[in-house]
Design goal:
Chain lengths: 338, 319
């Protein structure tokens, strides 16, 4: 046996193992190794949001909750599912990054295949939606359908298209969205339960429905036209409601002024005639005296005003009736006025 | 004997034991079904889960899915009865309900998929081409609602009542595809789904054009409707304005005329009693008003005013 003095690096040589000396360790060593492996295969943990299904010899035995559990190695198989988790399936779009402000992608390859659909009035619309679901029955989830997620996706698309195909493009774009969400949720649940998928649909949410890009302008034009029409009519009504009351007010005013005139006129007339009648009363009592008095009063008032007063005796026949038209043309006017 | 040999023999024996156990015992999972074959010939069908035994090496196992399996079709172009060119894409869920028959007829799962490729596609083609487009798109005859009456009316004009609808047609497809499926292949269709139905892409630009012109036409209708109503409102407003103004004018004139008439009557009633005195008084008033500093008065001495300049007696009689 080569030992010690050579400077070659130690080699592992099967022939050089000291079998004789270590004989008593071999069997227990292998035994211990096997036991360790078996121990590692005989326990498992179920997380807080999971449940576990145990298959013993392939058959279902029990469902276990969260915690540390034991199983028989090799014979027992554990299937775990997250029963507390809410799953999201997106259709027509994908969330690129979520956070306080999420960003979405609407044009990944295949996006239009998922989102473009025919409405009941043979128009096209792009529909984007999300389905939230939970595992409600872990046994069903594992035992009935091979690819539950795929089934959910295909059925959802089929149902959404069937419902949208029974609705007008307006109902899909705006007025019928809540109703569509409700009906799709009911119908998808119905189908999945019929297949025994073990899922519970929490919600169907439409996220952004719009007409295809090529016709967006035309759809917007309709909305704008409605607004324009309403605005035009409102403006006209407003104008009418401003002008007509003003005209009525003016009419009232014109009538009031006429009535005012009437009162004034009548009062004036009555005033004048009353004054006249008062004088008449006096006159009736002493006619000649009154006439004379009135005449003289008038003369006393007017004669002092006139600067030029000519007194001519009627018997004077020789005066040439001469009127100086040059300097006293005002006289001519006065004569004419009389 | 050397220890090495003992170990070698032990390991070989252990491995052989494992192989034997593995070859003669097997577990059937609850999610699968198994055909036991002997020299390629099926001799036993197992559909219940558990631990089973077989003869190693001579007998073999074929595993099949017991759960529902997905089948995904390819898009196919179909011409509807009203000559509309559409793309239809279907998906289905199916099961192996008779594994023995399935194994005998098809052998492996992917052949089952192949069978469905043919059967479902042809059923879809046959049924879709027998109906008009509306029958395939619509599900029920529910009334379509719109945001405006114009759009509602436009749709009512085109409305066609359907007799079947998508739900019923899909059921027809399922029945047609299922015919003979179980007897021949041991397969069963759980459900068929139309997951995509749309105009063929070459036709889509025309469809968009139709949608565009329809909407633009309605937009124009709204605007002209607005203009029309505006003209009506303004027109009736103008008429009303005329009426109000002319009424006011007429009424005012009536009042003024009445006022003048009444005034004249008041004056006339008073003055007609003494016309002479009235003319005397008003003439004196006129003198007062019209005479001013520029007036030149020429009077004869015989006038009443200067009467007493000549004499103080009353017509020659002393008093």
């Amino acid at each position: 046996m080569a030992n010690g003095h050579e400077s070659k690096p130690p080699e592992f040589n099967f022939d050089n193992i000291n079998w004789q000396a270590n004989k008593k360790y071999i069997i227990p060593g292998i035994g211990a190794f096997v036991i360790l492996i078996l121990i590692s295969l005989s326990y498992y943990t179920v997380n807080a949001n999971q449940e576990g299904i145990i298959l013993r010899f392939g058959a279902y035995t029990e469902t276990v909750g969260p915690g540390l559990h034991f199983k028989i190695p090799i014979v027992d198989k554990v299937l775990k599912g997250e029963v507390k988790r809410i799953y999201n399936e997106e259709f027509g779009f994908r969330t690129r990054a979520s956070g306080k402000v999420s960003s979405f992608s609407y044009d990944f390859p295949g996006a239009l295949d998922e989102s473009l659909m025919l409405t009941g009035d043979l128009n096209c619309a792009e529909v984007h939606w999300v389905i939230r679901y939970k595992i409600k029955n872990l046994k069903d989830f594992f035992f009935n359908v091979r690819n539950v997620r795929e089934t959910l996706r295909q059925v959802s698309q089929g149902v959404m298209r069937r419902i949208v195909g029974d609705r007008s493009v307006d109902e899909v774009l705006t007025i019928g969205r809540t109703e569509i969400e409700d009906v799709v949720k009911t119908e998808v649940s119905k189908s999945l339960d019929a297949y025994g998928c073990g899922l519970s649909i929490q919600a169907v949410m439409l996220k952004g429905v719009n007409p295809p890009a090529a016709v967006k302008e035309a759809f917007n034009a309709v909305n704008q036209a409605v607004q324009v029409r309403d605005r035009i009519i409102n403006d006209a009504e407003g104008q009418k409601n401003k002008i007509l009351p003003a005209a009525l007010g003016k009419k009232e005013q014109v009538i009031k002024e006429a009535e005012g005139y009437k009162i004034r006129r009548i009062n004036e007339a009555q005033g004048d005639t009353n004054a006249f009648l008062a004088i008449l009363e006096e006159y009736k009592k002493a006619q000649d005296v009154t006439r004379r008095r009135l005449y003289l009063e008038t003369m006393a008032e007017i004669l002092p005003k006139c600067e030029k007063l000519y007194l001519i005796d009627e018997s004077q026949k020789g005066i040439l009736p001469f009127i100086n038209l040059g300097a006293e043309s005002k006289l001519f006017e006065t004569e004419r006025q009389k | 004997m050397k220890i090495q040999s003992i170990i070698l023999i032990a390991v070989i024996a252990f491995v052989a034991l494992i192989a034997f156990v593995k070859g003669s015992l097997y577990i059937v999972d609850v999610r699968e079904q198994v055909i036991v074959t002997q020299f390629g010939r099926p001799i036993r069908t197992i559909t219940e889960p558990g631990l089973y035994g077989k003869i190693p090496f001579i007998q073999d196992l074929r595993h099949f899915e017991k759960r529902a399996i997905e089948w995904d079709g390819e898009s196919s172009d179909i011409l509807t009865r009203d000559k509309e060119n559409i793309e239809v894409n279907t998906w289905a869920l199916w099961k192996i309900v008779d594994p023995l028959r399935f194994y005998t007829a098809l052998g492996a799962e992917h052949n089952g998929q192949g069978v469905l490729d043919e059967i479902i596609e042809s059923s879809v083609k046959n049924i879709v081409s027998a109906y008009i487009l509306k029958e395939i798109v619509r599900d029920t005859n529910r009334k379509l609602a719109y945001t405006s009456k114009e759009l509602e009316d436009a749709e009512m004009m085109k409305a066609v009542l359907i007799k079947n609808g998508r739900g019923k047609l899909v059921a027809e497809i399922k029945i047609a595809a299922s015919r003979g499926l179980e007897e021949r292949y041991g397969m069963q269709i759980v459900d068929v789904v139309i997951k995509h139905i749309n105009y063929v892409s070459s036709v889509i630009p025309k469809i968009y054009e139709r949608m565009r012109s329809e909407r633009f036409r309605i937009a124009n209708k709204y605007e002209s409707e607005g203009r029309r109503e505006e003209a009506e409102i303004i027109g009736s407003m103008k008429k009303e304005l005329e009426r109000i103004q002319s009424e006011g004018y007429k009424r005012a004139k009536e009042i003024i005329g009445d006022a003048d008439a009444q005034a004249i009557k008041i004056y006339a009633d008073a003055y007609k009693l003494t016309p002479e005195f009235y003319s005397f008084i008003t003439t004196l008033e006129t003198y007062k008003k019209t005479f001013n500093k520029d007036t030149v008065i020429i009077l004869g001495t015989k006038g009443d005013y200067f009467k007493y300049l000549q004499s103080y007696s009353v017509d020659g009689v002393d008093n």
